[in-house]
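Researcher: Next entry in the queue.
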Amino acid sequence: MSVTASDIMSILEQIAPRELSESYDNVGLLAGHPAQSVERLLVALDLTEGVVREAEKAGAQMIVTHHPIFFRGRKNIREDDAEGAAVCSLIRAHLALAAAHTNFDNAYPGVNDALSEALGLENVETAPHGMRAGTLGEALTVAEFVDYVEKKLDTRARVYAAQDKRIERVAVMGGAGGDFFAEALSLGADAYVTGEVRHHDALAACAQGLCLIEAGHCETERVCVKLLAACLQNRCDELQYNVTVIESREMPFMR
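Model: Structure for this entry, 255 residues:
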């Protein structure tokens, strides 16, 4: 059966419905023709020139990313800036591009389910804004917990805590979730793991007894690539679509 970019978008709509996206977001088919034939599909966190090269090398016809292009208004597409160069490379390679961003944040399973699983959380519950909260297998000190997060996410984390405490209940939100610390507190979390934290949010969280772990935007969300790829592959297989879904290995930063 010939599968098109439009068919992939129908599957993506089932996994991460557009209605779950925030009003400011830019999701859906962002480049390419809906009728483009797709046999191989690459899933990545971001569109970069490296990801485009990876897709070409893999023989893919389409890329699905978590983070969208054109997230903020652009008045040009120039090759002397990173996004413009990646878009030009994408077009030259005749690749279609789709994004599932806040709709995948808010979906089930979604980004924060992948993050909860990566951190080994148990008895996980869903909260507003896609946040998840669960328990560790055993209580840890703040220092032990930071070490645990760094190993599980392969990252270098920054910790904000007013005092040492035992960490057992943990809330998580991938990406720029620092300003949602109040929700983490309302869920009874001892610690909150997210990607980015602003200084005054850290001060307010610590004042209320929350241990806040800033583990990196990329590091808290790259775990969702495997989940999104698996969801797409499973649905393609169920529909008997002859499509191979590939998980990107491209890393935008030195590790």
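Model: The chain has a mean pLDDT of 96.
Researcher: Noted, moving on.
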